[in-house]
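Feature request, filed as a ticket because there's no other form

It would be nice if the structure record came with a short human-readable summary line next to the C-alpha cells. Right now we just get the raw output. Example of a typical job, pasted below so the devs can see what we mean:
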Amino acid sequence: MQNEQYHILVIDDNADILFMIKAMLEMKGYKITAKDSPENIEIFIETIKPDLILMDMLLSGADGREVCKNFKINKQISHVPVIMISALPDAAASCIESGADYFLGKPFEMKDLFQTVSSALSAVNT
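Raw output as currently delivered:
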C-alpha cells in the first residue's frame, strides 16, 4: 500500500506538536486528521475509520491511557493500532499496559516517528 492510502488520526492538545506531526506525516504522503481533544473521540473514530491512531498520553482533561483502554474494548475500533507518545520517561510500560501497540518518548527524532508509523501500518496488513 502507498502511504497516501493510509489515514492516520493524530490526537494532541498541544497545537504546535499537533501541527508538526501532521505536517511531517503529510510530507510522507499520509492522509492526516488532527484532533486537539479526546472529546467524543470514539464516535469520531468510528466515523472517519483511521488506519492508525497517534496520540499523546496526557491530554487536557483526560488521561490518554484511559482513552486507549476504551478504544481497545470498543469492538468497532479495537483493531486500530495506537502509538502513544509522552515526555514522561517512565510512561512506556503504562501506555503498553493500557493497550497502546507502540510507544514513542518525547522528544523523538522524525526518523523514529516514521519508522514506528511504518511498523504499525505494516502490522495492519499482515
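Something like this underneath would help us a lot:
The chain has a mean pLDDT of 93.
The longest strand covers residues 7-11.
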